[in-house]
Specification:
29% strand, 6-stranded antiparallel beta sheet, single chain, 114 residues, alpha+beta
Length: 114
């Protein structure tokens, strides 16, 4: 998967917005104002996704391309190298999981049915 496909898939999910809150190089994807994914235009082969804490550790143990996110809380955030040992199908599942993690923590009235 490339950065354009990653962006397109993130934006295809319900109620997702994108912006660049940190600088003009880091693109973040949000659900109801909460970040679930990001990518740097300086390093388009690396994406960052929110993840359940237990699942995050399991993924890091199973895939060379998945590491604790460098500038994020490593308990809940993974960085994933694109075009490595993570298939496009798995990456889409991980994007969905990141979206779900944010959605399930929203107040009940704000949650989105997928």
């Amino acid at each position: 998967m490339n950065i354009e496909s990653f962006r397109d898939y993130c934006l295809s999910l319900p109620s997702v917005t994108e912006d660049m809150p940190f600088d003009d190089k880091v693109l973040v994807f949000r659900l109801k104002g909460k970040i679930f994914a990001c990518v740097s235009t300086d390093n388009p082969d690396l994406v960052v996704l929110k993840c359940d804490a237990d699942k995050a550790v399991d993924l890091r143990d199973s895939y060379q391309a998945i590491e604790g996110a460098f500038h994020w809380n490593k308990k809940y955030w993974n960085q994933i190298w694109l075009n490595s040992d993570v298939s496009d199908s798995l990456l889409r599942q991980l994007i969905d999981h990141a979206w779900d993690e944010v959605n399930r923590k929203l107040p009940l009235k704000q949650r989105i049915a997928k």
